[in-house]
Amino acid sequence: MLTTTATDDELIRIVNQLQDSVDGLEDRVDTLEEEKDNLREENHDLHEEKEQLRQQNEQLRERLDDVDDRVDDLEDQPDVDIDGTDYESLTINEVPIGRIISSKAPRGDLKDEIEDLEARLSGETPTSDAEEAPPSEGPKPETPLERIVTLPEELVEQELTENQQRARFIAKDIREYASKAPAGHVIKAATMGRVLKAAFDTAHTETINRVREFLNELGQDGVDLVERDNSKIVVFDECLVRRLDQYDTNHGCVMEGAA
Description:
This protein is an alpha+beta fold. The protein contains ten helices and six strands; from the N terminus they run αββααααααββααββα. It folds into three domains: 61 residues; 31 residues, no CATH class; 127 residues, no CATH class. The protein has a four-stranded antiparallel sheet. It has a two-stranded antiparallel ribbon with strand order 1-2. The longest helix has 75 residues. About 3% of the residues have low confidence.
């Protein structure tokens, strides 16, 4: 009888130990579940932080691009310096613009500039130190635009302003840059901007407008400015384009299929 009682007590003790172990395991499972939930929340928070950082990175990248564009714009601007209020001391990119301006008679608007250029091209310009070029056997220029196209390269910088040089550059290869249309050969502002950017590293709106005006004025009846889609396009007459093709010039086309 004593043996049976001892055995029952031992079984009860073992069962109690097992119950304690089960209770401990359940507590551990609860703890792990709680830790799992905490980790899930932390992971969610990290994901949100990652998304915020990604958005901030994109914003910073956009701001950096804006800064780079601004730096490029500032680098394209001339270095202007003036000492006090004396305009003769004005320099732009170390060029004494003030002294140059003060030594020249005042200039008028575009019309005056065109008339001055036509007068110089018609033979009223001072004799150049360069050797006089032999007369060309090609067709005789009929417009000021044709005359500047046939101007010897060594006289171009001496006789033409920068925008006149740009207009000359485009006119020399107008067939390459313009698109054919019933009205003639058409070159749009966007195309002109790409050509000027490739050849002269400038495509400011004011520069494009100035070059467009020179082409129109110098080309006379052979060039028209036409309003289309809220923008002005330059239209070259076919006869003028043919004459430009015949001049023996040093072509320097910078773009193919620019139109």
